[in-house]
């Protein structure tokens, strides 16, 4: 356990081999293979979502601080995967984790995918993984709305075109919600239209926003089609995509 705490201290290293191949990969293996006691996992969770990790220099763009934040947000989904098998967090602790992750989603501004010479930052994809784990763990209408709003926030970016499959990762929490059948068709339709509303903003921001929305909706369409077949929701997605082309 002390080794894991120490490794978390270096999870933000700009050295991709150390950060990704050694530290994260080792933590992934240890956490998912039940090396730690429940108390230790709770300790690692608290460490990962603390101000010195998940919110380390939050708001910076284009700096190495993103690596610490983007890799800290990968720890909650690992621990939540253990929690799914054998509950280790109380409801209060779960909601505390959810609150921190959601706040991070809204505050993170460095959305670079692959950084030349330093490897993956991929904060949006990693945040999507955390949202997906939370969506599977906390299942109620109110929290479903929080997940939908967070995904909407990440999709509707107008200053960076997602090019590293972020859209596919953002679809995952949506599919987890679809599987739960908590929300009505009308609620899904309203969310879909809220994602695709394009304000009258100047170019190139307008084009970037439309591109990110379209890429996400295409990915969502095929995932829903594969899982559910042709439905009113897939028809709605297609209509929304057509409207974006006008």
Structural description of this entry:
The protein is mostly helical and 246 residues long. It has a domain at 1-138. The protein contains 12 helices and 2 strands. It has helices at 2-9, 16-32, 38-48, 65-72, 75-85, 91-107, 123-137, 141-155, 166-180, 185-196, 205-228, 232-245; strands spanning 114-115, 119-120. The chain has a two-stranded antiparallel sheet. Helix 2 runs parallel beside helix 5. It is globular, with a radius of gyration of 18 Å.
Features:
246 residues; mainly alpha; two-stranded antiparallel sheet; 12 helices; 2 strands; 68% helix
Record the SSE blueprint.
Elements: H1 2-9, H2 16-32, H3 38-48, H4 65-72, H5 75-85, H6 91-107, E1 114-115, E2 119-120, H7 123-137, H8 141-155, H9 166-180, H10 185-196, H11 205-228, H12 232-245
Antiparallel strand pairs: 1-2
Helix pairs in contact: 2-5, 4-7, 5-7, 6-7, 7-8, 7-9, 8-9, 9-11, 10-12, 11-12
The main pleated sheet reads as: 2 strands, antiparallel
- The span between the termini is 56 Å
Shape designation: globular
Low-confidence stretches: none
Q: What is the percent of helical residues?
A: 55-70%
Organism: Bacillus wiedmannii
Pfam families: DUF2785
Protein name: DUF2785 domain-containing protein
InterPro entries: DUF2785
Quick take:
The protein has 246 residues and is mostly helical. The protein has twelve helices and two strands, in the order ααααααββαααααα. β1 (114-115) and β2 form a beta hairpin.
